[in-house]
Amino acid sequence: MQANTFLNWVNQNLSTAGKEPIDTLVTGFADGTKLVPLVEALQGRKLGRLNKPLTEHHRLENINMALQALAEDNVRLVNIGAEDIVKENVKLILGLVWHMILKYQIGKTSKIPSKKLMLYWVQAVIPSLNITNFTTDWNSGIALQ
């Protein structure tokens, strides 16, 4: 469910940029030709010239261009590098998309820190569970049902 939600968010932003959607987050970013336009759409600027992804070196360069732009824009990149995306590491790619959502979707609409804003939203949607944090209050899994 998380992957589908994130995929829909990515495709919505790619569509806004006039780009074709991707089928999956894992394979869709593997050569950088969709990740770079996504970052360009989110940041409202051109990053540079994409390489045709003929070799792994070209794919890595494309992805590094996007990751560098995200890092410069203070998007938290936790233990992810271009190699992880080329090798289709699902967990790290989902984490990357989550941090883009926090920065460019949730964070752009408020001066309140993204995590706090998300916590307020969860509390409003499911007040009966009395969620106060994103660690111990999620351990039972009840909030995810």
Automatic annotation (TrEMBL):
The record's listing under InterPro entries reads: CH_dom, CH_dom_sf
Q: Which parts of the sequence belong to the Calponin-homology (CH) domain?
A: 1-105
* Pfam families xrefs: CH
Where are the annotated coiled coils located? none
Q: Which SUPFAM superfamilies match?
A: Calponin-homology domain, CH-domain (SSF47576)
The superkingdom of the source organism is Eukaryota
Q: Which Gene3D superfamilies does the annotation name?
A: Calponin-like domain
Record's protein name: Calponin-homology (CH) domain-containing protein
Q: Where does this protein come from, organism-wise?
A: Macrostomum lignano
